[in-house]
């Protein structure tokens, strides 16, 4: 099968959605399918050896911004646009603060959802020309619902099935100010008619999006995320050093400040005086101030030297950090559509502690690889962490269960097969 898989690039950092999409791409290739990976917005940032990281960008982020904000750039010739789509310039722009902050992107979001009927028509016309120049695929996979306007163009030019993953759109759109918030949801719902199938990344998120978009069951097929288990190796024994860990975007919405507060609280107890903290993940310029405030909070309590911050790790480095932990936690304050990072921690044999909301609950219930605490209840959170940190055998056995559960239910091979089943269903 020839599959065109579109992926939003991130240029210089890893994101959960892109990690998931890259793993799916690799699994399709391994199964013998002809898969073309096409980046939008920014260059691909990946550690996959079989990815062309120098492929031409469609809907380059700088051109979108210029066309959105200046009538002059709505009519510039292609040779000028190509300058702004150059890899080095896109990589430079991606490092700027707030590039993907939802609250500042209202107008751009509406324009993207309007597609060839909005002010970004030049980019959508270019996409239509690009499709004409490509060998026709059997199916196209879009990475998220905010790109469903592409489906309208795809249907017009190729008339092939369009599959669209749903992963985290609600929290992004809900952060938009009015009137963009209501208009984005209205356009989103209208555009679902151009998708042959929508694939939410969890059963929880399927229920959310069915209600938000008025979807019927015959178009919505949940497929839980999976990860590549290559490189995780055998499970380590009980670690010599008691360590609490975090791996996600270093943002307040992910509950990083709550984790730091819990660490400080535990450190002040004699039984946890030797506890260490490892914080790893993505940080953009927009989060620097927040992270520095957390470091200052740790410093004031005398615990900064017991905390390590690890930014934009490679896949091998990430696995090494995960396997060094005793307990893992990302206490996100909102309902995540899935939570790929807890599956990664479980794959390393590390038990997790997560709030009882979003996609976390179904993952932990299926793997038995962690504990759930009540959201917005700091005492419940600290108690759950203390339970595992104070009982090495319990934590080890729970980590072992989680690892087995990931191998059984959350591998990328299983995810790829489930997505292929959805594709076959819409092709019949």
Describe this structure in words.
By secondary structure, this protein is of the alpha/beta class. The chain is 46% helix and 12% strand. It has 18 helices and 11 strands. The chain has helices spanning 16-30, 61-69, 78-84, 87-94, 106-114, 121-133, 149-157, 169-174, 180-191, 203-213, 256-267, 288-300, 315-323, 340-347, 360-367, 378-389, 392-409, 412-427, and strands at 2-8, 34-40, 139-142, 162-166, 197-200, 243-247, 276-281, 307-311, 327-328, 352-355, 370-373. The strands form 3 sheets. The protein has a 5-stranded parallel beta sheet, with helices on both faces. A 4-stranded parallel beta sheet has the order 8-7-6-9, sandwiched between helices. The protein has a two-stranded parallel sheet with strand order 10-11. α12 (288-300) links the parallel β7 and β8 (307-311). α1 (16-30) crosses α18 (412-427) and α5 runs parallel beside α9. The longest helix has 18 residues, at 392-409. It is globular. The two termini are 14 Å apart. The mean pLDDT is 90.
């Amino acid at each position: 099968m020839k599959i065109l898989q579109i992926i939003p690039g991130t240029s210089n950092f890893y994101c959960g959605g892109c990690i998931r999409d890259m793993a799916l791409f690799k699994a399709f290739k391994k199964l013998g399918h002809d898969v073309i990976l096409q980046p939008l917005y920014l260059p691909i940032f990946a550690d996959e050896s079989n990815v062309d990281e120098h492929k031409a960008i469609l809907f380059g982020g700088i051109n979108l911004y210029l066309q959105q904000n200046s009538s002059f750039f709505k009519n510039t010739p292609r040779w000028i646009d190509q300058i702004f789509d150059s890899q080095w310039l896109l990589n430079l722009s991606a490092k700027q603060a707030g590039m993907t902050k939802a609250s500042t992107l209202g107008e751009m979001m509406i324009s993207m959802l309007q597609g060839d009927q909005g002010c970004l028509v030049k980019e959508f016309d270019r996409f239509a020309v690009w499709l004409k120049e490509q060998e026709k695929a059997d199916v196209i996979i879009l990475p998220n619902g905010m790109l469903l306007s592409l489906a309208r163009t795809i249907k017009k030019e190729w008339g092939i099935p369009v599959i669209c993953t749903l992963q985290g759109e609600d929290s992004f759109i809900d952060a938009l100010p009015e009137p963009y918030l209501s208009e984005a949801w209205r356009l989103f719902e209208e555009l679902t008619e151009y998708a042959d199938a929508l694939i939410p990344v969890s059963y929880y998120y399927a229920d959310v999006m069915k209600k938000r978009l008025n979807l019927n069951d015959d178009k919505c097929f949940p497929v839980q995320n999976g990860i590549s288990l290559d490189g995780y190796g055998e499970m380590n024994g009980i670690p010599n050093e008691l360590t609490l860990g975090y791996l996600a975007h270093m943002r307040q919405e992910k509950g990083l400040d709550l984790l730091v507060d819990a660490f400080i609280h535990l450190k002040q107890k004699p039984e946890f005086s030797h506890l260490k903290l490892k914080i790893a993940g993505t940080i953009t310029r927009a989060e620097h101030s927040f992270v520095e405030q957390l470091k200052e909070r740790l410093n004031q309590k005398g615990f900064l030297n017991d905390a390590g911050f690890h930014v934009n790790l490679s896949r091998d480095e990430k696995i090494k950090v995960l396997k060094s932990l005793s307990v893992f936690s990302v206490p996100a304050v909102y309902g995540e559509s899935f939570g790929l990072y807890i599956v990664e921690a479980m794959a390393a044999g590390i038990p997790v502690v997560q709030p009882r909301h979003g996609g976390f609950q179904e993952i932990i219930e299926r793997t038995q690889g962690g504990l759930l605490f009540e959201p917005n209840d700091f005492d419940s959170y600290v108690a759950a962490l203390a339970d595992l940190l104070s009982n090495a055998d319990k934590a080890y056995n729970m980590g072992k269960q989680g690892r087995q559960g990931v191998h059984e239910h959350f591998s990328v091979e299983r995810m790829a097969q489930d997505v292929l089943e959805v594709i076959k269903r819409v092709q019949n």
